[in-house]
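Hey, can you fold this?
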Amino acid sequence: MRNLISILCIMVLIHLVGFSQTSIRNGVVEDRRAGEIISNLNATLSKEYPVSLDYSVSSKEDSFTMKGSLTINKEKYYGTYDKDEIYSNGVSVWIYQREVNEVTINNASEVENEVLNISKFLADAKIKFRPKLIREEAGNHIIDLIPRTKSQFSKIRIYASKSTNRLTKIEVSYHKGDKFIYKISNYKPKVQVKDSDFLFNQNKFPGVIIVDLR
């Protein structure tokens, strides 16, 4: 009887190991299924470049909703949000504020805009964050991204469509309590773009004030 119990225990352990969705990395439990979903999101986006989309961002704390648009082509992107515009050619980032007619220029590597830079955000998600699959809901995988190191974010929750392998919503939570919700709509793959679309053209904005922080 004791031998039979031992054999059954071993069989159960083999079954659990075989179907486990987790692994250990540097002493931390990793959710392999969540990592696979993120890899699929990244692979789909890579196949569909250039991509354009609309989004809305809202904050319950500040009671506001803002709409914007975004076009992405690998490490390059440009978009609008509220009355402002953002451009990046992968090297520099231009943030234009229409109300004051001013553009601020930074190195792309120094700008913390993980959410708007969706391509880089997905590429770095498994490096900068520890993904965990929370549940499936309304046709989406819901995954929490917990920062691996000290960060301004407490967590980022992403919603990934099970049918299209595309992002549908991103919830960004900060340590100080702020939370911003980005909802993605009007997603269009393989749009037509030019390299010049990702550069700020100051000739279109007479009298613009340039603040170059590079």
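Oh, and this one too while you're at it.
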Amino acid sequence: KLGATDTVNLRDASAVEAVKDLTGGHGADVTLDAAGAAQATKDCFAGVKSGGVVVLVGMAPEANVELNVLDVIIREYDVRGVFRYANVHPQAVALLAAGAVDVESMITQRFTLDEAVEAIDFAEKNKETAIKVMVNA
């Protein structure tokens, strides 16, 4: 409904192989690491197409992740860092105001402020189905 047409369970397949299969071997136009795990970061570099864009949002526990600089140069992809969405709030608010993003359909559960602890517990225990758990004030 929101644009994702193919999903991959990473328990069953390699992220890079799945991206290559879905793109006819070319790689994705844009890869995004929001997990912050070293392997996810490496997979973003391996799964992007030549001339594509790698966006790093997730913050890994370790500051350094192995990067093949020659690969970046030869395949000419861009690497961009985003510090926790710090500079995109005006764009996000404008998209919401214009009705360009259907955020309501992303919310899978709602809890009251008094149920905040239960909400966190629910999100942790139901990772397969809890896409966006909201706590309403």
